[in-house]
Design brief:
Blueprint (H helix, E strand, L loop, with lengths): L4 H10 L7 E7 L4 E8 L2 E8 L6 E4 L12 H10 L3 E7 L5 E9 L5 E9 L6 E6 L4 E4 L37 H4 L7 H8 L5 H11 L7 H11 L6 E3 L6 E3 L11 E2 L3 H50 L2 H13 L10 E6 L4 E6 L6 H43 L5 H13 L20 E4 L5 E4 L3 H11 L5 E5 L7 E3 L8 H13 L9 E7 L3 E3 L8 E3 L3 E5 L3 H7 L5
Antiparallel strand pairs: 1-2, 2-3, 3-4, 5-6, 6-7, 7-8, 8-9, 10-11, 10-12, 13-14, 15-16, 16-18, 17-18, 17-19, 19-22, 20-21
Keywords: Coiled coil, Protein biosynthesis, RNA-binding, rRNA-binding, tRNA-binding
Subunit structure: Associates with stalled 50S ribosomal subunits. Binds to RqcP.
Family: Belongs to the NEMF family.
Length: about 575
Amino acid sequence: MAFDGNFVHALLGELNSLHSGKINKIQQMDDTSMIFKVRAQGANHNLLISAHPMYARFHLTDHKYEFPFDPPMFVRVARKHLEGGIIETIRQIGNDRRVEMHIQSRNELGDPIKRILILEIMGRHSNIIITDADYIIQDGIKHLTPNNNSRTIMPGFPYTAPPTEPKLNPRTADIESLTARIDFNRGKVGRQILHNVEGFSPLFVKEVEYLAGYFTTETIVPAIKEAMHQAEEIKPVLYTSGDAEIFYFTPLSHLGAPDATYDSLSGLMDDYYHDRYRKSLIRQKAQDYVHLIEREYDRTERKIEKLKADLAEAEKMDEYQKYGELLTAYMHQVKPYDESIEVIDYYTDEPLSIPLDKNRTASENAQRYYKMYNKLKTRESSAATQLERSYQDIKYLASLLHQMESISTEEEVEEIREELGEQGIIKNNRRQPKKKKHKIQLHPYRTTNGLDVLVGKNNKQNDYLTSKKAQNNHLWFHTKDIPGSHVVILHTEGEIEEQDILEAAMIAAYHSKARDSESVPVDFTKVRHVHKVSGAKPGFVTYTDQQTVNVTPDRGKVMKMAQPEA
């Protein structure tokens, strides 16, 4: 992606429809994002403004969002100063990713007032700030306290721009002086351009370099002018065939033909960001459960270490039994207040020193050693059983942590919550009304030969897929001794070719903890050979008659096989 200063310039042209529009309602979805409902030119518009650390942006949106019942403090301030106001202008500061929205509003007495809404798109330092006409801050969605080294964003303080080095605006004649700022002997000319030109992104600099062929004193400024001239064509594009998805407001020669085009920049951004934003919210909701699982994982690890120590101590039980037997045999030799006794060990015919409690009789010392023996014998049996169970628990918790990484829907969060409640990791609130059970959603893929494949991304989905959805003659896949998903080809053996097996194995490897590894071993067998062990943790099965293939996960190939979910 490249939400740079050039993109902002293009987007503002699209938002001209909001000029003279009335702000009817302001809502805040979360700590960083807001919706302005604007009536302009006879139509209703929803303007999304966000200072999210990863998804800071502004654009028109058609998506529906949930809003908290109790509105945050910042939206209350925004409503006080901006609701009912008329948008006079929306302007970009230079060619930077800073935008000012000038609004004519009224105070509580009905007197006209002017307010300025400032959006700063700067990654994790992004902010939304409301000031008066003299740039005195009324509030900011993120506060910077007076002891901050750079500037203060607090009510009552004068607004100051983010501290940045002076740069050249490529939309003015200032760009002609760029050559004097570039040290061609130092190299990394592209990075030097970024440091000296306002609103350029690494993506756009690559386009400039592509047009220049090679950066020299003669080519650098003409190439920038040519790139800026080509960028006057507003044609929203999306590139998806590379390592990462890239969007821009105009086609880029160095990337070739785009994979998709859009009618508007807002439509492009709505599609690009909404799914990512929704997933970030879902992961945020799931994070509390991640902490619970991690805490349980750490507790189980400590338990394993303690049980190991108990077993190590239990190795002394035979020694304590011997002490008891020898003391019983040589009891007549023990004198009052002896702290030890030297005897002949009739097992080895060698002398042996037995420690004694001087405050106990010989008989009491012997009984003490027998009790210690019996105690350790019981502890050994219990510790061995608990240790085996703890190893199963740690394996189960590790699989849960892996599953939490791939959560993408609220239903999957609810499935994890239900499972944690069933396993006693969290307490179910009895007062809370039971939620209506939802249909378990599996994840469809299709091999290049057209065979359908289903994947379970958590234990509930895995159990449903293997035990209920799949038929006995279907082929089942799972990474060998590695936490991962259950994968099933929904076809009989005669329909399945070797290519289908390799592709299904790749899907299984991709949906496992070994996603970033090479030559991942994947077992496959018929579903009839997969069995759920009574009393085992959710998602745990045993299987026989398996074969193993080694595959290297390829995200691009897996994504091409992915099908829309019903």
